[in-house]
From TrEMBL:
Parts of the chain that traverse the membrane: none
Name of the featured protein: ABC transporter substrate-binding protein
């Protein structure tokens, strides 16, 4: 069985995978493990599958689910789950992207539901009340506008807008408005981001930029740029839950940070964000025996006391270094599962260096899977619209979205066949 192995420069991951391979080999001496350092790429998966060179299992972004299924590059895990003791313990909030027609095609590795991270110090500096978990777009706008201080280079809200991450960030507002990125009907996939919900979501970002003056003056930021800005104290709010990075690498204090759900468009509405992350899938080109071994490998440390032991090591190490551990975000396991209770009991022993999700926040968070077909291409198309809106104060949002949808359907989605 070929194991997806980290690249040579990822030393920490190499140590972890080598340890896992040894432990797996001790338990399953009948399985010969071979390393394959290919990492998933939408542009390379077709070549790998055609040449039968893809690993026996591989990790893929949530965006790739239905694209892989359409090309018959996913294995139905239902037969393996039928014999798996923890089949019903997976967190249903995270299994959505690869649960298709009642069948499960992947195991969540590090799934997430998008949230908002807040620098409380910037709110306090301008005497702005902290938002509450049940906040709305109006509350978000007011907070972003009030905390922004352009003269000092401080943004009320910093979002990604340079690469595909721009479309990824913006889609949270699309979902919160009740929209979707794609429609599937009659065996065809078409763009849906130019709906009324899409127009509302893009108009909201336009308002933040031009009326609220709440975004960074240099808004062309990528993933790393946004979080660096936040760590420098130059953004009051960003999307994501990079608490550990902000404290452990940015010198911030956990008491100064807060996580909230994506704001609802209107009072009482859903707090809906992008549900994404990475998932482990089994190569359907392998023999049934190798597929079983791949499933056993993917789930080897899941729901296992070895994970509890490893977490204790991490918590001890971070306590020594004065670093924090983020706990309470949606994980691959159900919080009320036996494993979830063991994790909770361990975390309770480290009150000083654990940042806890507010249970109310976790409860309010609702996730919608990333675009199922050509997800990264969808984000790229949306980023083009976003950049025009952030550049041109008089941009016609509806016209731009319609043009992007038409072009994307003709050039990309028209070539997709839904089984």
């Amino acid at each position: 069985m070929t194991v997806q192995f980290p690249k040579s420069d990822n030393l920490a991951a190499i140590d972890m995978v080598n340890s896992k391979m040894k432990r797996f080999g001790d338990k399953y001496p009948n399985v010969t493990l071979k390393k394959n350092d290919w990492q998933y790429s939408p542009n390379e998966i077709g070549i790998k599958m055609a040449a039968h060179q893809a690993p026996s299992w591989f990790r893929t972004p949530a965006t790739e689910g239905k694209t892989l299924l359409e090309r018959k590059w996913l294995t139905d895990l239902t037969p393996f789950l039928a014999k798996y003791a923890h089949a019903n313990d997976f967190n249903e909030k995270l299994t959505g992207p690869f649960k298709i027609d009642g069948k499960m095609y992947a195991v969540p590795a590090n799934g997430y539901i998008m949230s908002v991270m807040v620098n409380k110090k910037l709110f306090e500096a301008k005497n702005v009340p902290l938002p509450t978990p049940d906040w709305t777009w109006d509350d978000f706008y007011a907070a972003a506008k009030a905390t922004a201080d352009p003269g000092k280079g401080i943004a009320g809200f910093a979002m990604m807008a340079k690469g595909n991450e721009g479309g990824w960030n913006w889609t949270n507002f699309l979902y919160a408005a009740g929209g979707t990125a794609q429609n599937v009907a009659g065996g065809k996939v078409t763009s849906a981001f130019n709906s009324d919900a899409g127009v509302k979501a893009m108009e909201f970002v336009k308002k933040l930029r031009w009326e609220g003056d709440a975004l960074p003056q240099n808004w062309a930021l990528n993933y790393g740029d946004v979080y660096n800005l936040f760590k420098q104290g130059r953004a009051a709010m960003v999307l994501g839950e990079k608490i550990e990075d902000s404290v452990n690498n940015g010198g911030m204090k956990k008491e100064d940070l807060m996580i909230l759900p994506i704001p609802s468009m209107a009072k009482g509405g859903d707090h809906t964000g992008v549900l994404g992350g990475n998932y482990d899938v089994v190569n359907p080109q392998e023999t049934p025996d190798v597929q079983q071994a791949a499933f056993d490998y993917m789930t080897f440390d899941l729901f296992n006391d070895s994970e509890v032991t490893e977490l204790k090591r991490v918590l001890d190490e971070r306590k020594t270094k004065g670093q924090v551990y983020l706990y309470g975000a949606p994980a691959y396991y159900k919080a009320d599962s036996e494993h979830g209770k063991k994790i909770a009991a361990l975390v309770d022993q480290y009150p000083d260096n654990v940042y806890r999700f507010d249970p109310q926040v976790a409860k309010l968070m609702k996730g919608v899977p990333e675009p199922s077909y050509n997800g990264q291409d969808t984000y790229a198309a949306l980023t083009n619209v976003l950049q025009e809106v952030l550049t041109n104060k008089n941009a016609d949002v509806k016209a731009l979205l319609d043009a992007a949808a038409k072009k994307f359907d003709e050039e990309v989605l028209s070539k997709v066949t839904v089984q």
